[in-house]
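B., you asked whether I could sanity-check this one before it goes into the benchmark set. Here's the sequence:
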Amino acid sequence: MSPDTNYAQRYSILGSIMLGSIMGPIDASIVNIILPTITHFFGAPISTAQWVPMIYLLTMSSLLLFYGRLGDIMGYKRIYLPCCCIKCCVRNHKAFANSGVDLNSMSFAGLH
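And here's what the prediction gave me:
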C-alpha cells in the first residue's frame, strides 16, 4: 500500500468516526428543541412528549455496552458501518412519524 493511499484512508476513517460521534448529541438536541412543536402538532401533553428524549437516551445507553462488546468480538468496522447506516435511515423515517406513539415506539425498539 502506498503512503498516499494509507494517508487518504486515515481521513476517511476519521470522517466516519466524526460523523457517528456527532449524530448522538445532534439527535438529542433536535428532539429537545422541537419538543414544544411535537406536543402541539400531535396534541399530546408535555408529560407524554417528554418520554421521547428520555426513551431515546435510555435506549442509547443500554445498547452502548451491547454493541461495544459485539464490536470486540466481530470487529469494529463490521459493526460500526451498518449501524451508522441504519441509524441514518431510521432518522429519516422518524421525520415522517404520524404520532408521538410512533416516535416513542421507534425509540424504544432501538431504532434511534
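One thing to flag: Helices lie at 3-42, 46-49, 51-74, 76-94, 100-108. Otherwise nothing jumped out at me.
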